[in-house]
């Protein structure tokens, strides 16, 4: 029995063409890509589609934009899908189980963060989940997750779209819903980790002082090059240890 898979957007195919060229050495580490007009001409694509694909490649760590130079291939481009995709509640769970307590399940307009990470149009609507992760009754992390617009999910990952609709009122993270709906689809993730302070609002949500040091993890998960989930995770001092494994 044939299985019908969602048709990939042209920009996804273009993303993969350029990523393959990078990994195959057509554009070796450290080289500068041709200018946008020349590259679009060489690839036979429109400049808007090329610009969107280049932005995805930059977000995934394959390219860097250097002022006065242009887009260069990073010296150590990450392997595709190298980052392990695991819900934060599972990552933090060691000997102590971690529970996800929902704070908010809503639909909201894109912010600067979600516009950049999910490439969401300004007039779109995004599902937003905010949760506190608790270990032994103590708030261990604040998690904010956004899904791509429904029309994007229906094309790129309809099983995830359905999982969000059926799990909207349940405990659990959006990433857990995505992982559970993706048994047949490969996920690729990219995260950044920075040091910060909680601030007033997050401090109130985590029952900590605003000046409490914290680790902020931003995360984007893609399916075949299409960003379907973006998240911010705030872990204050005293949270369960977060294992960081560097891919070789």
Would you give an account of this structure?
There is one protein chain. With 248 residues, the protein is of the alpha+beta class. It folds into 2 domains: 10-73, Orthogonal Bundle (Arc Repressor Mutant, subunit A), CATH 1.10.10; 88-236, 3-Layer(aba) Sandwich (Chorismate lyase). It is 31% helix and 29% strand. The chain contains 9 helices and 8 strands. Helix 6 (150-156) crosses helix 7 and helix 7 packs across helix 8. The model is unreliable at 1-8 and 244-248 (pLDDT under 50).
Quick tags:
248 residues, alpha+beta, Arc Repressor Mutant, subunit A, Chorismate lyase, two-stranded antiparallel ribbon, 9 helices, disordered C terminus
> What does the average pLDDT come to?
83
Spans of 5+ residues with little confidence (pLDDT < 50)? 1-8, 244-248
Count of β-strands: 8
DSSP strand (E) fraction?
25-35%
Helix content: 25-40%
Oligomeric state of the chains? single chain
SSE layout and pairings?
Elements: H1 10-23, H2 36-43, H3 47-59, E1 63-66, E2 70-73, H4 88-92, E3 98-108, H5 112-118, E4 126-135, E5 138-147, H6 150-156, H7 158-167, H8 174-180, E6 187-197, H9 200-206, E7 213-223, E8 226-236
Antiparallel strand pairs: 1-2, 3-4, 4-5, 5-8, 6-7, 7-8
Helix pairs in contact: 1-3, 6-7, 7-8
Summarize the structure in short.
The protein is an alpha+beta fold. The protein has two domains: 10-73, Arc Repressor Mutant, subunit A; 88-236, Chorismate lyase-like (Chorismate lyase). 31% of the residues lie in helices and 29% in strands.
């Amino acid at each position: 029995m044939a299985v019908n898979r969602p048709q990939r957007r042209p920009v996804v195919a273009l993303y993969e063409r350029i990523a393959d060229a990078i990994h195959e050495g057509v554009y070796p580490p450290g080289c500068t890509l041709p200018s946008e007009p020349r590259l679009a001409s060489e690839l036979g694509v429109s400049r808007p589609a090329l610009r969107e694909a280049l932005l995805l490649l930059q977000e995934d760590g394959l390219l860097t934009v250097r002022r006065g130079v242009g887009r260069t291939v990073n010296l150590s481009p990450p392997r595709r899908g190298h980052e392990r995709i695991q819900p934060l509640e599972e990552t933090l769970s060691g000997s102590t189980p971690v529970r996800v307590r929902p704070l908010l399940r809503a639909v909201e307009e894109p912010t600067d963060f979600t516009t950049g990470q999910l490439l969401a149009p300004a007039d779109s609507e995004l599902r937003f989940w905010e949760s506190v992760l608790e270990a032994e009754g103590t708030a261990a992390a604040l998690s904010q997750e956004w899904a791509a617009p429904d029309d994007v999910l229906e094309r790129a990952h309809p099983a995830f779209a359905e999982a969000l609709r059926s799990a909207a009122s349940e405990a659990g993270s959006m990433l857990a819903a995505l992982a559970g709906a993706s048994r047949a689809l490969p996920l690729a993730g990219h995260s950044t980790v920075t040091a910060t302070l909680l601030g007033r609002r997050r401090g109130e949500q985590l029952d900590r002082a605003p000046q409490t040091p914290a680790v902020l993890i931003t995360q984007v998960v893609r399916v075949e090059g299409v960003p379907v989930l973006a998240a911010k995770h705030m872990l204050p001092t005293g949270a369960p240890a977060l294992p960081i494994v560097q891919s070789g």
